[in-house]
Specification:
heterodimer; A: 115 residues; alpha+beta; 2 domains; 5-stranded mixed barrel; 5 strands; B: 426 residues; Rossmann fold; 5-stranded parallel sheet; 4-stranded parallel sheet; disordered N terminus
Amino acid sequence: MCWAVPSVVTKIEGGIAWVDPGDGVERPAIIGIEESALQPGDLVMVHAGVIIAKVDLSTLKESVEMWKQMARELAASTGEDPEAAARMIEEEMWRVVKIAEEARAGRRQAVRELA
Amino acid sequence: MACVSTPQDFPVAPTLDCWKCPVMKREMEALELAFRRKTSITSTLLHNIEKYSRELRERDGRYVYKVMDFCGTHEWTIVHFGLRSLLEKAGARNVELVAGPGCPVCVTPSYYIEHSIKLALEGVVVYTYGDVFKVPALRPVKGARSLAEAKALGGDVRVVHSFLHAVIDARKHNKDSLFVGIGFETVAPGYSEAILKGLVPDHLKLMSLVKLTPPAMFYTLEVVREKPTDYPISGVIAPGHVSTIVGGKAWQPVAEQFQIPVVVAGFEPNDVLAAVAEILRQMARGEHKVVIEYTRAVTWEGDLKAQSSIRTVFETVDSAWRGIGYIPKSGLALREEFRRHDAFAYFGISDLTPETWRYDLPANCRCAEVTLGKAKPTDCPLFMKACTPDRPIGPCMVSVEGTCAIWARFGGGGLADEIARAVGVF
């Protein structure tokens, strides 16, 4: 029920948003969510031609913090270095956060790399 | 539901098979790449899962914890990435992932498909999503068992990727037109916003077949609980994108009434593993809360604008689910003030009622039980014998989100588990 594709909003005209899922082709989409919160450059999830969510970069970073905390706790319980485990997570996620920021800044190709 | 690969020019050659669509293929490759790159996270999650499942085993012995996913895309992630096998390898053999009703195409009653076929053969332009196009109806209409067959017989059936594309195409002609409006909460704001913004031409009528997931979740959990020979559902992975609209709050009554953890998860394999880890953690600690794992897209309140737009255009009604029957307050019908867009009113189709609904799956097809998590695809006598993705018999084998179609295309991790259990490997 839920397959949605991350895309960048390229423009909003007459209540319709144009989105690019990363292949350079813009498609029209109905704005299913709060329109005033949406502007060109925003990362959104598009499901069957409907924008159903705006992807929030700050909460993406919150997730990274959650993963790190989980890794710390696990490492502590097995006698490993908690900070080394957290660093490993940070390195893995840094790339994702960076690509998301680039996508937002207008590098559309970056959207392709976002899962 | 429905592939989103949409070339800018319209109309387009329909993409009938979403698995072959370039955007979806690229998405899958990106997901796989991301999964491989984040092995530390996966490993951390699997260790956590092992830890909590061990605690639960030490506490509850041979009890099996069933965790149900309510989204075809979650089931896709689970099967595609072999998460069932991964859980087993991590030592979590007391945890079973069960697929729930996450496929709108699978639960749309045959009655509506039959009426759409009839209208197509009577000269109405019928717009539909690619997976609805191929769904077999129970009874053939003038020789056509699906909209695809109606098209072959000369009906004007046009496959579109979204309601908006149907709107754009319909504006180019003045013929009576029908949009077969299936879906869950994710598509509902698309329908309501298009209507409220006045985009929909008068000759394009919407057959609203939208289903709501929280009532289905209640129903499913009750049904599985009533099956005395089986373990009840111990935790729920709630649908991530439905939750962008309805919010995490929509699942609070489920957690309260059934006293089980509910985790709203994203669609990467690590999202699903994180949900399983959190569900096991809560079970080990005796908690039953709603937790949003998919924080990058889902909030507790959901999108209030979308909720209000849906409420303005639609009213909640009792609704029939294919092979299952009526579930109270589980569907959306157009309100009286939007009657001019209503396909039922315009084409004189009397809607189903609990009295007129009849069991509508083909003989031996266990799609309804698969949908409710009471059976696995491999339990069905037709699965991969008479019923295959190329020649589907039941709706679960048609849609990209049907559990049978997913198991058929990507192999059933659960099949390996079953064989192992049958031969007493563990």
